[in-house]
Design a protein that fits this description.
By secondary structure, the protein is mainly beta. Helix content is 7%, strand content 43%. Its main location: nucleus.
């Protein structure tokens, strides 16, 4: 799997190529979930991964050793979205019980709730933490985006929206984006009360926004929508660069996509249950994968069924991405395939 921090930093300098993407295969899989994985997050510096599952569990993994360090159950509240704070064993997560939409700050070290954040009145569908301070934002089906400080239970700000919001901070924590209704609205985090300083169109796609994200260098952003579109834009000018299309997702699901560490590729789930990768430079699909961990088992009916898309995230500074469905899979390059590519050149 992935080595220590210094080794991960060395890997960042390697150029991620189409051949490396095409060689990716499952290197490790965890099959002990009794429900679908609904969310996962990598800690920025520690090499930890956290997952949330419909089996009402939160699990902490050490990526370098490919081991599950801890499982914590949230039977009373359920769990839907989960994000690391700056601390590698503290997370914020949303409920999934239908009667309490509070967000919770949880210590995974001793399984203690440190704080409750009450304010939403419907399911929280988007959550983003500021990497530079203690603030975070949450978006809900109650058509509000709330701004929070981890150190206090009281909401610090409220923005009303006209649809299902997708939200994200940029890597510097200076700007955040709110997407809904076919547009991405850009806010200065220090002066959000003044409204958006830019509004970018996504080409008339007015289907529900699912996920909005910035690339690591902040130059690009992506937006996924329920109709199965992944839009890539220049985050400074709002220029629409490309749109990738996958099978639409069921109405109760979220289509997730992720930039590779250097921002040159986009990987995404799909309503057909597969994962796909595209080159940002060419706009072309470069690879696709079935999510079943047994390569010999093929579901020939996948094209005719509505399937929940896998949760998908690229590991920071690493030649690895992770997918979550009813299994958690770590995808790494197959070195034997890469040797074959080199031999052909």
């Amino acid at each position: 799997m992935v080595g220590p921090q210094s080794e991960r930093e060395d890997k960042v300098s390697l150029e991620l190529t189409e051949e490396i993407i095409q060689s990716m295969e499952i290197g490790m899989v965890f099959k002990d979930y009794s429900g679908r994985i609904s969310s996962m997050d990598f800690h920025r510096t520690s090499g930890y991964l956290v997952t949330a599952s419909e089996d009402e569990s939160i699990r902490l993994y050490d990526v370098s050793s490919a081991t599950c360090l801890k499982t914590i159950n949230s039977k009373k509240y359920g769990v839907d979205l989960v994000c690391f704070t700056s601390h590698p064993t503290t997370v914020i997560y949303s409920s999934k019980n239908g009667w309490d939409e509070s967000l919770r700050l949880l210590s995974l070290h001793d399984n203690k709730y440190l704080r409750y954040f009450k304010g939403h009145h419907d399911r929280v569908v988007s959550l983003s933490l500021n990497s530079r301070n203690e603030s975070f934002i949450s978006g809900s089906l109650d058509r509000t985006v709330l701004l929070w400080d981890q150190r206090t239970e009281k909401c610090q700000g409220l923005l009303r929206v006209q649809g299902r919001p997708a939200i994200s901070y940029d890597d510097q924590g200076l700007v955040f984006a709110i997407a809904f209704g076919g547009y991405i609205r850009m806010f200065d985090a220090r002066m959000y009360e003044k409204g958006p300083f830019e509004i970018f169109s996504v080409g008339g796609d007015v289907s529900d926004a699912n996920v909005v994200k910035f690339s690591n260098d902040g130059r690009l952003m992506l937006l996924t929508t329920m109709d199965g579109h992944i839009h890539v834009l220049d985050s400074f000018r709002g220029t629409h660069l490309s749109t990738y299309n996958v099978k639409p997702v069921p109405s109760n699901c979220t289509l997730e996509a992720s930039f590779s560490p250097e921002g040159m590729f986009v990987i995404s789930g799909s309503g057909d249950g597969r994962a796909y990768a595209w080159s940002v430079r060419s706009g072309k699909e470069v690879a696709s994968w079935m999510m079943n961990s047994e390569p010999s088992v093929i579901n020939w009916n996948w094209m005719n069924t509505d399937t929940e898309p896998p949760v998908i995230k690229w590991a920071p500074g690493s030649l690895m991405f992770v997918t979550g469905s009813t299994e958690l899979s770590f995808w790494i390059p197959d070195l034997s395939k890469l040797a074959a590519y080199v031999g052909r050149k």
